[in-house]
Specification:
alpha/beta; N-utilizing Substance Protein B Homolog, Chain A; Rossmann fold; eight-stranded mixed beta sheet; four-stranded antiparallel beta sheet
Amino acid sequence: MVALDALVACLDDGKPLDDLLQRDRRHNALESRDRALVQTVTAETCRRLGQIDACLKACMKRPLPHKERVARAILRMGAAQLLFLEFAPHAAVSTSVDLARKRVKAHAPLVNAVLRRLGREGAKMIARQDVARLNTPRWLMDGWRRSYGDETARAIAEAHSKRAPLDLTVKSDPVVWASRLDARLLPTGGLRRAAGGGIEGLPGYDTGAWWVQDAAASLPARLLGDVAGKIVLDLCAAPGGKTAQLAAAGAHVTAVDLSERRLARLAENMKRLDLEIATVTGDAVSWRPEAPVDAVLLDAPCSGTGTIRRHPDIAWTKSADDPERLSQLQRRMIDNALACLKPDGVLVYAVCSLQAQEGEGQLEAALGRNPDATLEPVEAAEIGGVAELVDARGCLRTLPCHMAHDGGVDGFYAMRLRRSG
């Protein structure tokens, strides 16, 4: 029931899947194993939605009316279990039919017939599918083609079909913790474990030795250089991975976020990590510190298309209008962040987006609006020597198909600007 309701609200109403599950008391009351199952089924349904819908269409004489949201969601979840999650066929079918009898009784025979046929013919259907095209909305693919070319756009889409691994950032001694956590040490400095399983039982969780953070997400904070003893603002700070990096590196950090709820969670995370920071509830468009600061990290609100492999619902809950709408907000935040700096201070602007309007398009616009700002190019040596992560202008640009031999990374863009003295 929890998975079904979340999927309907996500795919039909456009609500973020993680938010739906985190706020559902029924989900939070489940055992950890059952919560993980709900998350796996809903995420994989979103990840493979285009393929699933193509298979369902082939098995039905006519599509379900648009209003039959619940029946459609039951079929989609059942198909995900049958085709991509390796559930026992009889279990996937019977569970789906039972759910249909409880929620949409008139459609139970249809659910039974369609899923049984998928159990027989689904593997052959999938073998003939164009995975990248089916699972990627046209507006996303077109944008990536314009920005990166056809080959790279397809590689990005194909990378999204794989579940992301578990990446960790450690306070210190990464080699030691790699051994203790049965993890690989990445060239960018973080640790990587296979996806799946809870994190609370892992060594070092209770003592705050590490936190969960994608390898690419850990890079923008490193572009501020040595921050020990410096006064640093982390704007739009929640959930706090970058805040933790800066505090662990010895910075005096003020974490600013518009959401009191998210800021409270950030404070809880810092307590577990035994890191001291200050927090302020404020809007990055207008909030200013009492005195100028040495550095600002602005991880701005964005479309999040760089994190589709971790949050596959983003492909279906965002629209072509979102990047341009958000880019206007980002411009205002960039200008305010630069105004918070001391002379010779540094701003790192970052977004977890693959869309050029939110990344590369912001660079020249920001320099044009702020004549006292200059671009300070990033060197590959600053990010573990991985040259493919630095673009021609000297900005950080990671793509999900980068570091493919290591399991890929999230998509990020970051530029470093210095305010003249």
